[in-house]
Amino acid sequence: MKHKPGLLILLSILMLACNLISISAGQPEQAGDPAPDKPLLPFSASATPVPTSIPSQPVGLRQGLASLNSYRLEIRTINNGPTADDKNEVTMRYESGSDGESWHISNTVLASTAEEPGVVETSQTDQYKVGDSMCEVSEDGSEAEETPVDPQAQEIADIWYGLFDLLPMINEPTFIGVETLNGVQTNHFRFNVSGLGATSGAEVVASEGEYWLAVDGQYIVKYILRLETRNGPAGDANAHTMRSEFYIEVKDINQPIVISLPSSCR
């Protein structure tokens, strides 16, 4: 079933992608877990080369999701640097209902700077589409604005949605094995990022990624990228460390998902 969640979802994905690009260019975050239940797996140097018979290139994220009846998607960027207090985390969560029409999208931003250490600014937005109604809920959930879906605006949004896709970085992947993840049979790959530190001259502490592709459909079920550089010796108080992490995960694939408007929207 084809899902067209509209321009809001597209812009959210592009915002996350642009955030990752800006990180790679110079402002990453803490190399922590994306969430307590999503530990960054250790990277093994003993993996076997990718057999040519196992396809390692994913289809675009939009293309892959469009082949599903329902799912829950999370995309997250975590950036830290050049000081420990310069942090930024952007998370988009998207639910696609089993009816093929309803959806819920949530965007959360956490940010702090060295200028105001210990102060973390947060913002969150939630949008819902159920039937012919759309609703945006305030950050604290106390207020909501419901509007009817404009067919003309939706048509334009659908065109925009079809023009772009997100294809995460993959560099000479190594095949790890076949694994069942989030209820889907997947091929698991790992890779290292080439070229990191070549321009800045910084020491590369980490440049590794891994991902899981659905055997049926070649879409990304999970993707992790971790980058870290340091411009001085470990333990040097004057050395700046830049960290960046990027995560994608698709869960509850083709499972019953019912999206309802919150009570504040009615």
Account of the protein in words:
The protein has 266 residues and is mainly β. Helices cover 15% and strands 38% of the residues. The protein has a six-stranded antiparallel beta sheet. It has a five-stranded antiparallel beta sheet with strand order 2-3-4-5-6, covered by helices on one side. Helix 1 (7-26) runs parallel beside helix 3. The longest helix has 20 residues, at 7-26. The radius of gyration is 20 Å and the shape is flat. The two termini are 29 Å apart.
Low-confidence stretches: 1-11, 13-48
Structural class category? mainly beta
Following the backbone from N to C, one meets helices and strands in this order, namely: HHEEEEEEHEEEEE
How many strands, which pairing sense, and closed or not: the largest β-sheet? 6 strands, antiparallel
**Biggest sheet, strands in spatial order?**
1-11-10-9-8-7
Count of distinct strands: 11
| Beta-strand content estimate | 35-45%
Percentage of residues assigned to helices: 10-25%
From the alpha-carbon coordinates, what is the Rg to the nearest angstrom?
20 Å
Shape: flat
Count up the helices. 3
**Average pLDDT:** 79
N- to C-terminal separation?
Answer: 29 Å
Can you lay out the helices and strands and say which pair or pack?
Layout: H1 7-26, H2 61-66, E1 71-80, E2 87-96, E3 103-112, E4 121-130, E5 133-137, E6 144-148, H3 151-163, E7 174-181, E8 184-192, E9 203-214, E10 220-230, E11 241-251
Antiparallel strand pairs: 1-11, 2-3, 3-4, 4-5, 5-6, 7-8, 8-9, 9-10, 10-11
Helix pairs in contact: 1-3
